[in-house]
Amino acid sequence: MRIDAHQHFWLMRNREGQWPPPDLAEIHRDFMPHDLESTLQACGIGGTILVQSLPTMDDTGFMLELADRHSFILGIVGWVDLKASDAASHITRLAAHPKLKSLRPMLQDIADVDWIDDPRLDPAIAAMKNVDLRFDALVMPQHLRALTAFAERHPDLPIVIDHGAKPRIAAGEIRPWREAMGGLAALPNVHCKLSGLLTEAGERRDAAAIRPYADALLELFGPERLIWGSDWPVLRLAGDYADWLAMCQDFVPTRHHDAVFGTNAGLFYKLGMNRSGEAI
Q1: Is 227 in a helix, a strand, or coil?
Q2: Which residues lie across from 136 on neighbouring strands?
Q3: CA distance 165 to 91
Q4: Measuring CA to CA, which residue among 235, 153, 248 is closest to residue 192?
Q5: Fewer CB within a 10 Å sphere, N or C end of the chain?
Q6: Residue 128 and residue 146: Cα distance in Å, rounded?
Q7: Which of 180, 105, 117, 167 is nearest to 140 (CA)?
Q8: Prior bond to 155 cis, omega within 30?
Q9: Model confidence at 277, in pLDDT bands (50, 70, 90)?
Q10: CB 78 within 8 A of CB 52
Q11: Residues 203, 171: contact at Cβ < 8 Å?
């Protein structure tokens, strides 16, 4: 099965005062399952991971309700305030839903770049481990030092870095990002998503601009810890779903397509498949 390991749905009535702003006309509207299903079918994508886009448990509940109604939604990445005193109880409650697979604090929007490197998260992380949840890291290059410290402190927590940590492709910066990502890739519990790169490219939205970053991720994390995602509908700001998929399929050697475009997501998010992509 081909899996899109990173996409979003939202209703604008739930996002008053939140991103996206009206000037981002391509995505300033509702996006629901019926808007994506035909594209998934046309591209041969059999299922998706639906990811939170608001720092609220209401958003998590909204996604879980969608997952109950749409079988192509294989898993949910939700949100809990991991530093709240009652975080552990919320995590345990939400994890009773079989499609909740991971949690994601919106680190990119938190002013303190060291927020994640804090022992105050330990009770929530312990609760996540107890119910076998994963951790999605929505980070930018400035967060990678703190994320590395967090990942080292929790070596038994499966972590995936969303969007390759959003390298500054538009500015052509690669060396500091690559060095920091290399430190994370050396930790066996850390995985990475081949997603979101097109929207970081500014006006340089072509394969030649993206390839050095995609090549670095494949080299650092290898074909068994790299996971493809579309970041739809945010992707619409920079390109087309089928074109992004085709670009990534060109970046990744054909012999690794089954892993990067399906099996790795199934294994990381525990979607009930083995390394051969077969249901278990």
Answers
A1: strand
A2: 160
A3: 25
A4: 248
A5: C
A6: 19
A7: 167
A8: no
A9: low
A10: yes
A11: no
Per DSSP, what are the bridge partners of residue 67?
none
Distance CA 217, CA 40 (A): 25
* Structure-block tokens of residue 274: 């083995």
**Which pLDDT score, from 0 to 100, does residue 279 have?**
63
Contact 206, 251 (CB under 8 A): no
* Rounded (5°) CA angle 2-201-258: 15
Write down the pTM of the prediction: 0.97
Residue 175: what residue type?
Answer: R
- SS3 of 99-131: CEEEECCCHHHCCCCCCCCCHHHHHHHHHHHHC
Say how many CA atoms lie within 13 Å of 258 toward its Cβ: 7
Spatial neighbors of 15 by CB under 8 A, at least 6 apart, are 54
58 phi/psi in degrees, rounded to 5? -65, -40
Residue among 148, 234, 138 nearest 187 (CA) = 148
The tokens 């022992």 sit on which residue? Answer: 119
Question: Residue type at 18?
Answer: Q
In angstroms, the CA 21 to CA 212 distance is: 31
Q: What is the pLDDT of residues 60-109, one digit of tens each?
A: 999 999 999 999 999 999 999 999 999 999 999 999 999 999 999 999 99
